[in-house]
Amino acid sequence: MFDRIAILDWSAAGTPKTGKDSIWLAIADGSGVRSENIPTRMQAEERLSALLAEGDRLLIGVDFSLSFPAAALERLGVDAAGLWRHLATNHTDTAKNLSNYRHVAAELNQRLEGDGPFWGNGAKADTPHLPRTKPASALPEWRACEEVAQANGLNPKSCWQLAGAGAVGAQSLTGMPMVYRLREQGATVWPFDPISRVTIAEVYPSILSAEVRAHLSRHPDMVLDQAQVELLAQALWVLNAGGTLPPLFDVEPTKEGHILGLNHELALRAAEPSAILPPRLRNDCFAMPQGVNWVPVDAALDKLKQALHPIKGVETINSHKAQGCILAADAVARRSNPPRPNSAVDGYGFAHEATSDGPQKLPLLQGRAAAGQPFDGAVPHGAAVRILTGAILPDGVDTVVLEEDCALDGASVIFDGPVKPRANTRKAGEDVESGQTAIRAGHVLRAPDIALLSALGIADVQVYEPLRVGVLSTGDELIARPDMDALPHQIFDANRPMLLSLLNGWGYAPVDLGHCEDDPKLIERTLDRANVDVILTSGGASAGDEDHVSHLLRTKGTLSSWRIALKPGRPLALAMWDGTPVFGLPGNPVAALVCALVFARPALSLMAGSGWAEPVGFTVPAAFEKHKKAGRREYLRARLNDQGKAEAFKSEGSGRISGLSWADGLVELPDEAAEITHGTPVRYIPYAMLGLR
Ligand code: AMP
Ligand code: MG
To answer: Could you say which enzyme class this protein belongs to (predicted)?
Structure first.
């Protein structure tokens, strides 16, 4: 039906504004969704005019009302189009967002009986004829569609309310004039006009409020308004692409207008989130500021952290099968653990109040309480019952005494008081209460997490689809497999099997893209056909004659060659290839591994949905000596000796693959100069902490 869907979150702010409660515009199409935060209404109107002129079939959803209750229109003697014209004529706005909407409202108030209907003034200065609080008005507060929204459990605000949390009145008064002008440029306004190439409709982003909450738990840095417009744009896009959008437009004509999606909430919610594409990475996301020469490691990491975000869709899977998956929405307990108060030991249960100091003798009831076999009936005050570990405390029991501390005489149980109230019992929900968040989005699920999900009655979880990472080796000298014959000038490809196994250990879906000779055409074809989320290449990444990867990425993709102050490591080539991020690692296996561990690991973790992964290291005494110059961070192949001190590999030569295998971790030396002698504290990062298995 449409080529693109734009959703606008409007704002009546009195100054240019970005962030929360400002103007957000999300645009969804076949390639995903992206959003823009636009500081002023004038800029937003220019943006929409430009979109309208682009020639695509476009649906523009706006989050303000496009009409008033019918009785008010009748009193004013206009229809909706007449209202837009009136507002376009009387409303003024500036490039600084200075709108006269309060005066426009006050003028309308004077033409309508009573003190209102418009009310609410967020400004210091009074506006005559605009009451600050809600006046009694003879006019209805709601349009029919808003009454439907309320009946459907939504919470619309009245178009008469100009100020206060979530008020839409001011947004309508500032937005309808723009709608009038866009209509003059050829747009039509549903349901007042027929649907056309560019159709404007009123929408209600809160229809997806539960989905928005889940989305925000996955993207804690995202602004609410942004999440709302992106999700609604995506959901409408999914219906559009699946051919199920037309029924949403099928309503009775009315001058009050309608909210698109009303009575189709389930369809919209079902369209979100599994079928939707996550936001795309920007093509210029790896761009380094001009003139930057050597980038310190931390600056490069910061830049990556900013540039990237989760790029995978979400799927729902059975929690028993979720090992290794990344949780995409907080897992909320469906049941408390334990669900009911129970006994922590095998013993005898009774009411604490019936006991005192000194020897106790309580008559023992027939029967017992066991796990899975609750005691049938209540325990009278002053009596005791046999109870086993995990059994629900019967009514009348709040305390349990350990069987080892009791004697039995056939009819009674005998023990020494005093006993602590609630001794040896577990409270309901003492571990996790129903409704509590048990595991946060972004967590990688392991065996203990699966135990917790099960205990809390969580059968299904939302997880990110696995990140598919392609690995490509380049170089004329390489031969693909060690079982092939090698000529003297040839070497076996070491990087590709290393990187594939690294990715496997990190829990991603590795995709072997094979090996390419240094032939730009061949490399280009391989990149084009990769069909993966991220590509790691090795070799040919610097700027020399034979460095075909960086040349290709520069000419046909968007390459940013980062000269990172790092040893071992040469420039890291970061690029977008037709929307897919490419990490061009050095060819040298030692440098390739270090760059993969330092840069690719946290970046992939972020893109996969588990957040930026900081390496965890600890400080140990050095068992080596080294004079380190200032200017570059250095990673040494290292391992702990039997005294817990870090030994470094005997050679720093970056072609020495044996050192990688000899090592159990890396020693990280700071950017600054350092004089290391035996016993100097150094930072050691075990391979295990870098996800090497
Ligand atoms: P390059 O980055 O292409 O200039 O390669 C730097 C060094 O790493 C050269 O000695 C290459 O032969 C070597 N090299 C490149 N790729 C690999 C690979 N996949 N396996 C082993 N060594 C490689
Ligand atoms: Mg090469």
So the answer is: transferase
